[in-house]
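can u do me a favor
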């Protein structure tokens, strides 16, 4: 998989999003960070001068277009992760397991781990699926 900056320009075009510096920066940041980030985290990472409203709109449009997804977490803060390239629009957010590290507090997308099929009782219809495991991540394991 190429990590050339062109990739983000291409991704934006593929999702009918205008190519702006903010959009490229947010997409690049979320793609290279192995865990989910809150809008506050993103603001911190992008440095001073980030317009909060523009950032908010950027995240919203990315979410609508299926470039990023919200990760389930037991807190009031929304955290976002980049969707894998393979995922198709609006079918991506609830197909993989998420993992929250109780040590570093990072929430990881385990894209390679599918949510197991759950058989529901009659007349129960699931609309969303949040599958969140908690424990100790790879980075926090003792050497
Ligand atoms: Zn950790
Ligand atoms: Zn995820």
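np, heres the sequence
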């Amino acid at each position: 998989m190429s990590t050339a900056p062109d990739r983000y320009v291409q991704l934006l075009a593929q999702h009918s999003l205008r190519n702006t510096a903010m959009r490229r920066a947010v997409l690049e940041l979320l793609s290279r960070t192995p865990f989910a980030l809150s809008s506050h985290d993103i603001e911190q990472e992008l440095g001073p001068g980030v317009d909060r409203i523009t950032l908010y709109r950027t995240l919203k449009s990315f979410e609508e277009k299926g470039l990023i997804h919200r990760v389930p977490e037991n807190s009031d803060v929304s955290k976002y992760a980049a969707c894998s390239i393979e995922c198709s629009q609006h079918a991506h957010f609830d197909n993989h397991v998420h993992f929250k590290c109780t040590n570093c507090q990072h929430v990881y997308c385990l894209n390679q781990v599918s949510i197991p099929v759950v058989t529901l009782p009659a007349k129960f219809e699931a609309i969303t699926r949040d599958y969140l495991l908690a424990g100790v991540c790879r980075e926090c394991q003792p050497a």
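Residues 69, 71, 81, 96, 98, 109 surround zinc ion (ligand 2) (CB under 6 Å). hope that helps!!
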